[in-house]
């Protein structure tokens, strides 16, 4: 049996006070009960019953418990007949001010009411956390987006009411140590005014949960499928520009991946998620295996990395995914998998170099010049030895990213796909390469 109450805000469902602990309802207590109902109403708790049958049953049980014999009263007070009270908390006024249900002196009744009071206060905190993450109601959560939870943090979309309801993103960090580290990195980024890097708008400590909250501008998802080659060159340059600025102050991202790239309102690339970033120190190696599997440089697994070179390798994996439609038969489809290791990128490098060599000696139709530039740049970014790997400053000056728009004619995604289709239909398989057959006797 349950008692259902009409309400408009937070829902709390708990066992009500055992019937044996309800005081006798005599005619002399009616005025006080009316006063109690008024107190409940002023505290924001509605006691209007939605089910007449439940109300009448509850009154009947109370009457039995007050007038019947002790044995009958104990029977009606058994756990199987305890009703469930459904309450809606509509304000932050303490539930203790409501005396609609009077406590008795028994320990069981006191414990029940204490649990109910704690639950209501918790629901109020959760409601305040969802609607007013910061004192003063500056940020209001956008309920049209689902909250995204990760191992170290959670992400919520919200509006900045002090900046024309501008959309922002709230990142809540679970660990104080993680929050302190990332906040220090982001403040350094803001001080250095790094380009194409996520900027911190605001930060505060949630008064309800005690979590550190970082406020960022809302960005657009980066859809990197079917990119024109000129767009690939643009984004590679912007990625290298952001890394160049970060590396100039000794900061390595160490977690570059497709998922950590987004676009701003001008469709310019932005590097996000600097939570695993570190300032480089030759005396201290980076944590082994740090980063996203499939994008981690080989020296990070060897435990010998101390520089910013791992970021370039990770950027090469990203660039290789963008170049897959243009560098055909080079196994670039492997990139992005969690199983990618240095042996995978070395295999890809050899295939690209093989195509370049056969094109130079005339056994294969040459790629477009800008495609060749892109292939040569990718080989340099996949260099296994960190000291010989190309730097971000050198990438910014590479012929591929400096090519003029006219050099990309015919390299948009649709034209490139159509050309590949015509080649496969009209020309059949590529020209056979000379083979060297070794026979052993």
Automatic annotation (TrEMBL):
SMART domains: S_TKc (SM00220). Residues 52-78 have a biased composition (Polar residues). Residues 127-401 form the Protein kinase domain. GO terms for cellular component: nucleus. The keyword Coiled coil does not apply. The keyword Kinase applies. One of its GO terms (molecular function) is protein serine/threonine kinase activity. Keywords: Kinase, Serine/threonine-protein kinase, Transferase. Gene3D superfamilies: Transferase(Phosphotransferase) domain 1. GO terms for biological process: mitotic DNA damage checkpoint signaling. PANTHER family: OVARIAN-SPECIFIC SERINE/THREONINE-PROTEIN KINASE LOK-RELATED, SERINE_THREONINE-PROTEIN KINASE CHK2. This is Serine/threonine protein kinase.
């Amino acid at each position: 049996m349950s008692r259902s109450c009409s309400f408009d805000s937070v829902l709390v469902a708990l066992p009500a006070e055992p019937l044996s602990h309800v005081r006798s309802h005599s005619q002399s207590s009616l005025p006080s009960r009316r006063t109690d109902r008024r107190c409940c109403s002023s505290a924001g708790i509605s006691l209007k019953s939605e089910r007449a049958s439940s109300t009448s049953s509850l009154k009947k049980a109370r009457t039995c418990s007050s007038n019947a014999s002790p044995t009958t009263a104990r029977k009606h007070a058994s756990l199987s007949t305890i009703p469930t009270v459904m309450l809606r908390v509509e304000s932050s006024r303490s539930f203790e001010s409501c005396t609609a249900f009077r406590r008795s002196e028994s320990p069981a009744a006191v414990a029940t009411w204490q649990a109910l009071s704690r639950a209501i206060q918790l629901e109020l905190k959760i409601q305040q956390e969802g609607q007013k993450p910061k004192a003063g109601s500056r940020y209001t959560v956008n309920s049209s987006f689902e909250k995204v939870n990760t191992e170290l943090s959670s992400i919520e979309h919200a509006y900045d009411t002090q900046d024309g309801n501008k959309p922002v993103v709230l990142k809540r960090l679970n660990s104080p140590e993680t929050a302190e580290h990332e906040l220090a990195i982001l403040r350094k980024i803001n001080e250095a005014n790094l380009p194409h890097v996520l900027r911190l708008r605001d930060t505060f400590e949630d008064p309800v949960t005690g979590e550190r909250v970082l406020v960022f501008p809302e960005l657009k998802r980066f859809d990197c499928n079917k990119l024109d080659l000129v767009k690939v060159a643009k984004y590679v340059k912007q990625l290298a520009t952001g890394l160049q600025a970060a590396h100039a102050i000794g900061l390595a991202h160490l977690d570059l991946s497709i998922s950590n790239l987004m676009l701003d309102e001008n469709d310019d690339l932005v590097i996000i998620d600097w939570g695993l970033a570190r300032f480089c120190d030759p005396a201290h190696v980076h944590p082994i295996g740090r980063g996203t599997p499939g994008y981690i440089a080989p020296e990070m697994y060897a435990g010998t990395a101390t520089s910013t070179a791992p970021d370039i390798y990770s950027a090469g994996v990203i660039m290789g995914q963008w170049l897959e439609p243009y560098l055909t038969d080079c196994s670039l489809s492997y990139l992005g998998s969690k199983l990618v290791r240095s042996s995978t990128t070395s295999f890809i490098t050899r295939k690209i170099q093989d195509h370049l060599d056969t094109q130079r000696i005339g056994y294969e139709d040459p790629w477009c010049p800008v495609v060749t530039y892109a292939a040569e740049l990718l080989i340099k970014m996949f260099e296994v030895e960190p000291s010989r790997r190309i730097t971000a400053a050198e990438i910014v000056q590479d012929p591929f990213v400096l090519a003029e728009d006219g050099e990309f004619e015919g390299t948009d995604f649709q034209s490139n796909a159509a050309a590949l289709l015509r080649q496969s239909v009209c020309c059949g398989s590529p020209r056979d390469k000379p083979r060297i057959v070794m026979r052993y006797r």
